[in-house]
Amino acid sequence: MSTSELWSTGTTSNGVCTTQGTVDPVQISRTMRAIDQVLSCRRVDAPARVRLIGSPCVAGAVLAQANVVFRDLIVRAQVPGPGGFVAPFLADRLDRQLARLNSGDIPRYWPDPARPPLAVSTEERPIVRQKSCALLVGAPADAVRVMEAMDYDAYLYTDAETGEDAAVYWAGPLGVRMARQYRTQPPVSTSGLSLTMNPHPTPRLTRAEAAARLCRYGLPFVFFTDPHSGRGRLLYRRYDGALALVLPEAAAR
User: Fold this and answer.
1) In whole angstroms, how far apart are CA 242 and each of 129, 202, 245?
2) The pLDDT value given to residue 2
3) Per-block average pLDDT, block size 10, for the chain (253 residues)?
4) Which residues, at least 6 apart from 72, have a Cβ–Cβ distance to it below 8 Å?
5) 43, 128, 195, 207: least surrounded by Cβ within 10 Å?
6) CATH for 3-103?
7) CA–CA separation, 19 vs 9, rounded Å?
8) pLDDT tens per residue across span 178-203
9) Distance (Å, rounded) from C-alpha 104 to C-alpha 203?
10) Which residues of 52-85 are buried (b: 16+ CB within 10 A; e: fewer)?
11) Among 86, 94, 15, residue whose Cα is nearest residue 55
12) How does pLDDT run across 7-54, given as a tens digit for each residue?
């Protein structure tokens, strides 16, 4: 394993910071102080868990992530940025996350100027990570609330109205779009959430076919139905260019 693949974890007075790759110690201190100021301003008592993933050189870009518990809800903010400026970028994003969740102002602004989608056509990339999850069973508004809190671009869940696996994601023209495996009709109730419905049935693809489609057409993610299990899956592009797969826990077994 190379040095850039090793993780290092340190506990500070205001939380835990985990780093990977080359991260300037000064940047760690700046980031933890900036996050602490946000939590103090928002009156959040829980400590933060921060991750900083550096590029091979200290002056390169850093992928920064902050996790905190706010009103019994896990809140996550993630943003890339230059090493010398990522601390205020991450602090500002977390502050906006907490402000929106506190006021109930969902959804967020889209397109997101601070974090453009990872949509670029490339040669086929490998799937380096597979995450099996116990999917949320609920309404689109429930799924969007989790997507907002976790700072995801797309979220896989099970639609309570139909029992189908579904996905919500940030897209125009209303900011949120929903896709189900089979039914393309809008949900009966959106609980006041403005969204548009993907008019196309979810494609049945193998993981290899989904990866080929994502890379060929420069998509940030692909929501598809696995032909063997019949369950929905979400394939997305990571910041390192590789791919990751989210699938239901039962489907993984």
Assistant:
1) 9, 23, 10
2) 38
3) 50 78 88 93 91 73 92 91 88 91 66 79 93 95 92 96 96 87 90 87 96 96 97 94 92 50
4) none
5) 43
6) 3.30.160.100
7) 6
8) 999 999 999 988 777 888 999 998 99
9) 34
10) bbbbeeeeebbbbbbbbebeeeebbbbbbbebee
11) 86
12) 566 665 568 999 988 888 888 999 999 999 999 999 998 889 999 998
200-219 in b/e form (b: 16+ CB < 10 A) is eebeebebeebbebbbeeeb
Residue 11's pLDDT is 60
Q: Which CATH number fits domain 127-252: 3.30.505.50, 3.30.830.10, 3.40.1280.10, 3.90.1150.150?
A: 3.30.505.50
Residue with tokens 């868990």: 49
Which two structure tokens, joined as six digits, stand for 84?
Answer: 């010398």
Ranges of H-type helices in 104-170: 140-149
How many whole angstroms separate alpha carbon 204 and alpha carbon 46?
Answer: 43
Q: Hey, what amino acid is at 136?
A: L
Q: 3-class DSSP state for residue 155?
A: strand
> Domain extents for the chain?
3-103, 127-252
Return the structure tokens found at 145: 């609330």
